[in-house]
Design brief:
The chain has helices at about 1-5, 25-35, 55-60, 80-90, 105-115, 225-235, 240-245, 275-280, 300-305, 310-325, and strands at about 10-15, 40-50, 65-70, 95-100, 120-125, 125, 130-135, 140-145, 155, 180, 210-215, 235-240, 265-270, 290-295, 305-310. It is α/β, with parallel strands linked by helices. The strands form three sheets. The chain has a seven-stranded parallel beta sheet, with helices on both faces. Strands 12-11-13-14-15 form a five-stranded parallel beta sheet. A three-stranded antiparallel beta sheet has the order 6-7-8. Strand 2 (about 40-50), helix 3 and strand 3 (about 65-70) form a beta-alpha-beta unit. The protein is globular and about 60 Å long.
Length: about 325
């Protein structure tokens, strides 16, 4: 009986957060979970951290929220929280466990898979059924449809492939509850040293509606400021190719591509970027791609919705002037 099979599905979303607010990818994972359960299965949320803000709880408006609040979980070390999550999954018999395909999810999911003795499916971009999923392979040039027979389907979800979930306030469950979990003894097998992050007022690269990216064509770290200038004019996030990062123009926080961040903005502007396969794999879900390059035969120019052949050192200042005119 299909209804019976679906109704006994129980989904767990592992929430990425910073103890003060949730990462916005949680709402993409909720959309993914909704595609799985047809509104019949139970969606649950797991949050591990330290001094977890009430603001986090207010952002998740439905479903059961399980919280493990302990100093050992302050920095979200996979080695500290993996056994806690594994024991919890086993105790509740979850059929599906979802994590974002972010640094957080990619660090934690393999440990969970090994300890649960199940397969892990990475970068899921489409839900076919409760046991059949689609993921990109060969740098996004092909897609594999995979069937998972394990009792627990452990998936990392490419958040850009799913819409940002909007709560229907009229349909929000009134039976949601917050359940506190006991911490387990620290294993002391890893230690948090420090975290270096770039502080900026610009939108988050993974979630931005407009992204301006620069490549090796900028030629220097000083010239890369042109990209930042255009991004500031547009209220956009700044991205870069691996070549630009390797050359030291910007830090690897800005890297877009298969080995960097996957983006899917409404508008992606690629400047001085030739369009290596690995970079194209990270931007292919962008709604509109604009490329500026002196080489009309560059791969990025072939896939762009709008391609402008020109010298970026002349084009960017002119663009900034014209955009400011439109804004005024």
């Amino acid at each position: 009986n299909l209804y019976r099979i679906i109704s006994f599905m129980s989904i767990l979303i592992i929430v990425e957060h910073n103890n003060n607010k949730v990462n916005s990818n949680i709402f993409n994972l909720i959309t993914c979970a909704k595609k799985l359960n047809y509104d019949l299965a139970e969606i649950n949320f797991f949050i591990a951290g330290f001094n977890i803000s009430n603001d986090i709880l207010s952002q998740i408006k439905t479903g059961n929220i399980y919280i493990a609040d302990n100093e050992n979980y302050k920095n979200f070390l996979a080695e500290e929280i993996d056994d806690l999550i594994v024991n919890f999954i086993k105790s509740k018999n979850f059929t599906h466990v979802l994590l974002p395909a972010s640094t957080f999810g990619k660090n934690l999911a393999p440990r969970l898979a090994a300890k649960l003795d199940v397969n892990q499916l990475s970068d899921v971009t489409e839900i076919i059924s409760n046991d059949t999923f689609v993921r990109p392979i060969y740098a996004g040039n092909a897609f594999a449809t995979c069937i998972i027979k394990d009792s627990v389907k452990l998936l990392t979800i490419r958040s850009t492939a799913f819409d940002h979930y909007q709560y229907d306030t009229k349909a929000i469950s009134t039976s949601s509850q917050i359940i506190k979990l006991d911490a387990i003894k620290s294993k002391n097998i890893s230690k948090f040293i420090k975290e270096d992050t770039s502080k900026t007022d610009r939108p988050d690269l993974s979630q931005a509606k407009i992204v301006v990216s620069g490549g090796r064509g900028l030629q220097s770290k000083e010239n890369f400021k042109l990209i930042e200038q255009l991004a500031e004019t547009l209220g956009a996030a700044v991205g870069a190719t691996r070549a630009a990062v390797d050359a030291g123009y910007v830090s690897n926080d800005y890297q877009v591509g298969q080995t960097g961040k996957i983006v899917a903005p409404d508008l992606y502007i690629a400047i001085g970027i030739s369009g290596a396969m690995q970079h194209l794999a990270g931007i292919k879900d962008s709604k509109i791609i604009v490329a500026i390059n002196t080489d009309p035969e560059a791969p990025i120019m072939q896939i762009a919705d709008y391609a402008l052949e020109g010298d970026l050192f002349n084009v960017i200042p002119e663009l900034c002037v014209e955009i400011e005119k439109l804004k005024n």
